[in-house]
Amino acid sequence: MQIYQAIILGIVQGLTEFLPISSSAHLNLFPWILGWNQMGKIPESFDVALHIGTLLAILIFFFKDWIQLIAGGYNQVVKKKKTTEGKIFWSLVLATIPGGILSLILSKLSEKIFEKNLDIEMIVIAITLIIMGIVLYIVDKKSKSNIKYEDINLKHSIAIGTSQSIAAAFPGVSRSGITMTVARALGIDRESAARYSFLLATPITAAAIIFDFKNFDFSSISFWIGILTSFIVGICIIKFLLDYLKKGSFKVFAIYRVILGILVIGLGIFKTIL
Q: What is the chain's alpha carbon radius of gyration, rounded to the nearest angstrom?
């Protein structure tokens, strides 16, 4: 892992982790497209670094939110005091359990299926980019926006949380993409869908990082560069998306997914011919 590669991939992670365009797809595509054949798949230690950076971005950006949510959850159990924050906190907790278990199982199966054939994985990524782009566009266009962030209940949360496992099974689906799509299908407004998706990502990402602690490489400069670049870019993207979705739609991201998927298929055919 060269320094410039670490910087590029850190920027890619920060840009794509929170947008509904699939960070895993882009992190697989960039080395493949740029011909970094000596790298192969991104080392697990560096992948962990990238996710530490974006996890820090979520924690810092939503620091006050998490303090209020944790306090609300505590008060609801100990003091029997019901609040919106308490309701959302326990909804997040309960939604994380099935989503986390299924994601862990399906991600391991996915790794075994694709670990030996990168070209097949690129085709799957291209197809899922296109399919999810079309689904996101249709769902976002046809869904109502009559449910606010504070009105999200346990039923909504379980549906959104469980959907994360689909992203773990199929590279290119996008965790944020599938959770925001399901949220929109349930009638949750765009900004609330994104905010809830980010909060829901916090515990499952933290658990994955803890689970991969053995892959930490603190002695590597690239490890720290990956954390720093993905953190800086990630926190900027969170703010951008929440501001953008106050008036904008997911249309631009859906179109981007379809175009990228088509380009990947075209490049795959070109590489095969050569």
A: 18
